[in-house]
Amino acid sequence: MSKIVFPAETLELVKKIIARYPEGKQKSAILPILHLAQAEWKWCSPEVMDYVATLMDISPIEVYEVASFYTMFHLEPVGEHVIEYCRTGPCCLMGGVEVYDHLKKRLNIITGETTKDGKFTIKEVECLAACGWGPVFQIREKYYMHLTNEKVDEIIDELSK
Amino acid sequence: MKILTEHIDVPNIDTIDVFMKHGGYSAVKKAIKKMTPDEVTEEVKKSGLRGRGGAGFPVGMKWSFLAKPEGVPRYLVCNADESEPGTFKDHYLMWKSPHTLIEGMIVSSFALGANTSYIYVRGELMYVINILEKAIQEAYDKGLLGKNILGSGYDLDLFVQPGGGAYICGEETALLESLEGKRGNPRNKPPFPAVKGLWQCPTVVNNVESIAATSWIVNNGGDAYAAIGVGRSTGTKLISASGHIKKPGVYEIPLGITVEDFIYSDEWCGGIRDGHKLKAVVAGGSSVPILPAELILTTAAGEKRLMTYESLSDGGFISGTMLGSGGFVVMDETACIVHNTLTFAKFYHHESCGQCSPCREGTGWMDKVLNRIEHGQGRKEDIDLLVDVAKKIEGNTICPLGDAASWPVAAAIRHFRDEFEWHIEHPELATKPGAVFMRKGASWTK
Question: What are phi and psi of B392, to 5 degrees?
Fold first, then answer.
């Protein structure tokens, strides 16, 4: 990995984010900046978290303890596409268990694993607030709703291209 | 009667010009130019509007607790960390009509004397955050946000803060910790946020739907809002309907319609999916007690149950439930109550912040015991063990997550004990794929 530094336009954005809070309260920017960091480097490695700490002038441990509390931050390397499926009640009622089983079979991995080609990681998450449109999974910012086995195949085909 | 969703299907209602063409931001003009902050608060009090996040605490009263020491900033924080299983109404409203929330934020911030406000949105909804940020920029460009709004001398900056994936941050003090850039551990109360909230300054935290409703209240008056509904359940409520119904989705209902109408009328859920029968409902998000068909449609006293705070809780936890967040999960006879309870128990186990031992240990214990019952390894004493663990979590934690974790387990056993017993006594039947217990003589049994 090359040296960990945000591109210039992201650094501008970081400045703007820190300015949302009163002086001295820049620590509030941890979550928004961690999201930017993960978008840039895929996962929050210790080096990435150390860099995030320098941007806010706080100690690295303050970033580690936050990143490890919130489930959205990947503390281990992940594949190119992280598929996060909702395993909570309402999605299960809509047939989620079968659809997610199909997903795992199709990619030939279990939850928490990454495909050998590094293309896909499957993660299990809790309720994504889309219960009426379930079963649901999320890849980055995009929600995929009303999933069926066929739809899952289409999505994987598209992303495998 | 629609207040929040009247124009939600208008094309491009997410843009400020279309929103304003349909009367949008008239409440900002009225409040800031013609009313004092106290007058706005007074109307909200009169409206009887209750917190729509789940607790149902009167919004106007919460506002009136806000401390106002000289020279100390006050904050309004919108709780858009919607994560209670079964609930997706705030997601829907912000996605479709972001300006409805922003207008409410301006009106409410003005009433509270806040010059900086934040909307804390769960991080998974990054696409909604982008929609909100675009809409906020439009409002700045029209002079509805920023310095000297509409020439009134009132200043307001509005920012969106993403969460990081943690249900607990829907608890208001955990949300404030998170907004301060910390782990989402709930705070001990008192002091309440109204006195020491964000950065130890007086703060009001309100749900998306509560804040969005204030614009209509300003435009039409608190009395007009209070005229909708029944008794202390005034106004309209967004209900997130999911599960085995014909038309899942978000519906804005006038409080006071019957549960039966809500489930079976074509205006709302459209009935149970073809060829199936109603078995049970979780009426207010995963934390509220599940009720079997007969108790959700009528109270134990035989009265038709209504979609109101009071009617849904009629009978207490013996035979009633709660309106909660309005997360209405419907199950037909194919739903396995043990499996569903396990998914909820897993959820709370995963989401417990770990601060209080009863919740940290108890949620894991319930998850483990339910898991073995579901997988055919249940023991005779497990059912009473679950009841006992649930009882020992309830009321013994800093925040309500402990209660929320214990209620669904306790209620499922209260109303479907025979189903748990069947799993334990007949593991060979219960673990067959798709196998569901059929109670003899029940209205949902085929």
Answer: -80, -15
Q: Look at A89 and B82 and tell me if their CB atoms are within 8 Å.
A: no
Alpha helices (H) in B227-374, listed in sequence order: 259-264, 293-297, 309-312, 316-319, 337-351, 357-374
Strand B327-332 versus strand B278-282 pairing type: antiparallel
**Chosen from A20, A126, A137, A146 to mutate, greatest number of chain B CBs within 10 A:** A126
3-state DSSP assignment of residue B324? coil
Please give, rounded to a whole number of angstroms, the shortest distance from the CA of A21 to a CA of chain B. Answer: 9
Top residue of B182, B239, B334 to mutate, by most chain A CBs within 10 Å, is B182
The CA radius of gyration of chain A, in Å to the nearest whole number, is 18
Ramachandran region, residue B329 (left: φ > 0; alpha: ψ -120 to 50; beta: rest): beta
Judge whether B87 and B326 are in contact, CB under 8 Å.
Answer: yes
Residues (pLDDT < 50) of chain B are none
Question: Which residues 18-47 of chain A have a CB within 8 Å of chain B?
Answer: 20, 22, 25, 27-32, 34-35
Q: How far is CA B77 from CA B31, B108, B207, B208, in A?
A: 19, 10, 9, 10
Alpha carbons A73 and B123: distance in angstroms, whole number: 10
pLDDT tens for each residue of B127-185? 999 999 999 999 999 999 999 999 999 999 999 999 999 999 999 999 999 999 999 99
Determine the residue of chain B that is closest to A85 in CA distance.
B124
Enter the DSSP assignment of B158.
E
- Domains recognised in chain B with CATH numbers: 16-227 (3.40.50.11540), 230-332 (3.10.20.600), 337-430 (1.20.1440.230)
- Which residues in chain B have their CB less than 8 angstroms from residue A145's CB? none
Which part of chain A is CATH 3.40.30.10? 81-160
Q: B122 and A35 in contact by Cβ < 8 A?
A: no
Interface test with A, best of B242, B268, B282, B346 (most A CBs within 10 A): B242
Of B181, B250, B343, the CB nearest to A89: B343
DSSP B306: B
Cross-chain Cβ contact B73/A69 below 8 Å: no
Percent of chain A with pLDDT over 70: 99
Alpha-carbon distance values, B206 to B95, B158, B336, B366, B384 (Å): 18, 15, 35, 31, 38
- Find the closest chain A residue to B239 by CA distance: A132
Does the domain at A8-67 match CATH 1.10.10.1590? Answer given as yes
- Our CA-based measurement puts residue B173 at a distance from the nearest CA of chain A, in whole angstroms, of 15
Give pLDDT, residue B434: 87
Residue A3, pLDDT score: 85
The fold of A81-160 is Glutaredoxin (3.40.30)
Residue whose C-alpha is closest to residue B102's, from B47, B170, B156, B39: B156
Assembly ipTM: 0.97
Q: What is the pLDDT confidence band of residue A2, given thresholds at 50, 70 and 90?
A: low
Amino acid at A151: K
Domain(s) of CATH 1.10.10.1590: residues in chain A: 8-67
Residue A13 contacts B, CB cutoff 8 Å: no
